[in-house]
Write a structure and sequence with these properties.
Length: 237
């Protein structure tokens, strides 16, 4: 009996703490886990690219994903940064399209992958899940509009600051823990941050050094510590 429980926990681990499944019972979670096997990708690996289209839904458990487009001139535009606990992918039945987008793992990630028929059978048939999916896609569209607006109207320094604010891990839910919490850290190289902000690595390095000299950040190898989040938000405009 104990082994069975451990097996169930392993199968449903990828789905635990995912927002759209927050009030499902164990049998419901197990059914979805059976239809959505776990996969892992290493940082820098592509989950999706235009030459290899596939209609699947990714459920992100661990790590972050960058969704971006590439122009004919080779310039990349980041359209979304996907954080754990949500969904993304090419799924016409949800009105969600990847079009000419690429999806790249920013970290080592864990996802569950579900096909079209199982999305129909297990997700869209449940009003609770369907409503949450609609809300997620609505927020993502609003985020995309904001990101495109920032690209046009904000300076490079503002875009760098805004990207760092977006990537700051969420604060602990318990207030009592906050005084003990360390300064938030963002695990990114200057090259990765440049790709997310739509600029060059050299420009990002210059902006980060200026922010560090003013005491807003502390720079490390592959890691940026945010010392003054409120001031950084002001810098982001």
């Amino acid at each position: 009996m104990r082994e069975s429980r451990h097996e169930d926990a392993d199968r449903t681990w990828c789905l635990s703490e995912v927002d759209i499944f927050c009030d499902l019972n164990e049998p419901e979670m197990a059914a979805i886990a059976d239809a959505a096997p776990m996969r892992t990708y290493t940082a820098g690996e592509m989950l999706y690219s235009p030459p290899q289209p596939c209609e699947v839904l990714f459920i992100l458990k661990r790590g972050r994903i960058r969704v971006f487009r590439v122009s004919t001139e080779g310039r990349a535009l980041t359209t979304a940064i996907i954080n754990p606990g949500t969904i993304f992918g090419e799924m016409l039945v949800l009105g969600q399209r990847m079009y000419g987008n690429f999806a790249e793992a920013l970290d080592d990630i864990t996802v569950c992958v579900m096909g079209r028929d199982d999305v129909h059978r297990l997700l869209l048939s449940d009003p609770r899940i369907a409503a949450r999916i609609t809300a997620i896609l609505g927020r993502r569209l609003a985020d995309l509009e904001q990101r495109l607006s920032d690209t046009v109207f904000k300076s490079v320094a503002q875009r760098v600051a805004c990207t760092l604010i977006t990537l700051i891990p969420p604060s602990p839910p318990t207030r009592a823990l906050r005084p003990l919490a360390r300064h938030p850290q963002v695990a990114l190289t200057h090259e990765q941050l440049a790709a997310l902000a739509g600029t060059t690595r050299e420009t990002v390095t210059k902006v980060l050094r200026e922010l560090a000299d003013r005491g807003l950040l502390r720079l490390g190898r592959g890691r940026i510590t945010v010392l003054e989040p409120d001031r950084l938000r002001d810098e982001a405009g």
